[in-house]
Amino acid sequence: MLRFLRAAALVAAPWLVIVAAWYAVAYSGLVNPALLPKPHHVLAKFVELAHERLPLDMWMSTQRVFLGVTLGILLAVPVGFVLGWYKGARQFIDPVINFFRALPPIALIPLVIVYFGIGELAKVAILFYAAFFAGVIVMYEGIAQISPIYVRVARTLGATDSEIFRRVVIPLALPHVLTALRVALGVAWATLVASELIAAQQGLGALIQNASNFFQIDIIYVGIICIGLIALAMDLVLRAAARRLVSWQERIA
Amino acid sequence: MSAVQPVRVRFDRVSVDFPTATGPLTVVDDVTFEIRNGEFVSIIGPSGCGKTTMMSMVAGFLQPAKGSVTLDGKPIGGPGPERGVIFQEYGVFPWLTVEKNIEFGLTLAANRKPEAERREICQRYMRLMGLSDFARAYPKTLSGGMRQRLAIARAYAVKPEFLLMDEPFGALDAQTRSNMQDLLLQVLAAEGKTVMLITHSVEEAIYLSSKIIVATARPARIREVVDVPFTYPRDEGLHERPEFGELRSHIRNLVMQEYAAQQRQAARNSS
Fold first, then answer.
1. Contacts of B110 in chain A (CB under 8 A)
2. What is the pLDDT of residue B73?
3. pLDDT of residue A253
4. Which residues on chain A place their C-beta less than 8 Å from a C-beta of chain B?
5. Which of A149, A167, A249 lies closest to B87 in CB terms?
């Protein structure tokens, strides 16, 4: 029990520091009170919105991120694998990947509107783009670093090509799939607001965008904190999955 | 082993070169020797001289540019479970527990064994290698010496006729190294295998082998083939015998000359 309390205190400590700093700045008079709401005002706003549009906004955003990341990773895993495994393919495709990876998704929004309109498809397309290029790079760097020794060992023990793929390559690729997923999720949440700038009616990005039009700074804070909380929750789930699936990995920390 | 045993592996005028930025580099040059059934052959020579390349050809990872490497008279086309390889860097599978590592080869189509037999083989090698207490542990929790024993157990489990070992004890401390050598001799006495060992250590080569091939500085040629006259089983006392000392100074002399040649080569190349 005591250990649990101590762990809880350690987890809570940095958050308390942030909230305390927030209060300190808000009451210091350094910032115009109209520009910086106090934490309890934001909390009150959160409770108020939680009975109105907030659940739908959170659901819509989560759904878009989930869809975009799922589709992006479904493509990034095989493409990243091929690029990492076959050095020949890398030479030709690497420059292409890096060209597209360097383009910020926001810069593509006008084109996406032209081709996909302003519906759900456009938002998922932007998130797909962001997730794919983030995921593919992680995946192929990871696969390229797999030591050839494990394949050699398996061959000397009599493994066939298909046995090597199923029993050696897949276990070695799995941690990289999970890392790609985590990175893609992070990038997708970062791109979410941009994707919901495309005339979205619902979603946390739309909430923030609307609030900014009406100078409702407390709502902007609510939206930002919700994005952070959902992203954190998804990352925790993924890390828990990683701990179960790849507990064999050697980690520095 | 008084009767002459059949030749299993034959190197016949084998040369290998690797492409480099400055043109092909010959690493093995016109090497001819043979390994008979049940022999323990060590290859010793300066580091980087091409010893590992010779073993890679027997393992089936590499084809000679000239000449041929044959196994029982047939050219070696690729790796196979009858040739167990113990790599310098162990290569234990980090995603499998100790017992799953040992059983890995026995679950492949090439040498699949029923569950009960697999368990039994696994138990036996874990006992032999002192790994029984770590059956469910992942390799990340094992020391270097234990990983090395795990790699050996995994290679033994599929009962290869040949063991190809590339500096298997190189990274171990002196005490563990000596224990592993004795363990290897015990297993060989019980199971009778043909062994090719690559080593830097003259003592190790003499203590374990029936025949020692001294390779020259790169490109590897055969400097001398030394027959080791001691009978098996051997024990630590062998190190104290005067014949052991004579053999050691003879081989050490040859190896030192090749190291000197390698240094002259390096000096020439850099000037």
1. 157-160
2. 92
3. 44
4. 147, 149-150, 152-160, 163, 167-168, 171-172, 246-250
5. A149
**Cα dihedral B186, B191, B192, B195 sign:** negative
Question: B80, A168: Cβ pair inside 8 Å?
Answer: no
B191-234 pLDDT per residue, tens: 888 999 999 899 999 999 999 999 998 888 999 999 999 998 88
Q: Between B84, B110, B140, which is nearest A250 by CB?
A: B140
Nearest chain A residue to B112, by CA = A158
The verdict on a CB contact (< 8 Å) between B140 and A246 is no
Q: How far, in Å, are A251, B89, B104, B139, B189 from residue B145 at the CA level? A: 20, 11, 20, 11, 22
Nearest-angstrom CA–CA distance, B228 and A232: 67
* pLDDT tens profile A96-139: 888 888 888 778 888 888 898 888 888 889 999 999 999 999 99
The interface pTM score, or ipTM, of the predicted complex is 0.86
Task: Confirm if A230 and A60 have CB atoms less than 8 A apart.
Answer: no
d(CA B41, CA B245): 19
CB pairs under 8 A between A and B: 74
B110 pLDDT more than 90: no
Strands B66-71 and B162-166: unpaired
Residue of A nearest to B88 (CA): A149
Residue B41 Cα, gap to closest chain A Cα (Å): 20
pLDDT beneath 50: ranges in chain A: 253
pLDDT of residue A181: 92
User: Whole-number mean pLDDT of chain B?
Assistant: 90
Chain B interface residues facing chain A, Cβ-Cβ under 8 Å?
Answer: 59-61, 78-81, 83-85, 87, 89, 91, 93-96, 104-105, 108-111, 138-140, 154-155, 158
Interface test with chain A among B104, B138, B158, by most A beta carbons within 10 Å: B104
| pTM for this model (two decimals) | 0.80
- Identify the three-state secondary structure at position B61: coil
Cβ pair A248:B83 closer than 8 A: no
Please give the single-letter amino acid code of residue A128: F
Query: How high is the pLDDT of residue B206?
Result: 95
Rounded CA-CA distance A185/A239 in Å is 12
Does the structure show a pLDDT above 70 at B1? no
Question: Does pLDDT of B114 surpass 60?
Answer: yes
Residue of chain A nearest B160, judged by CA positions: A157
> Cβ–Cβ of B87/A152 closer than 8 Å?
yes
Is the model more confident about B161 or about B3? B161
Q: Which chain B residues have a beta carbon less than 8 Å from that of A168?
A: 93
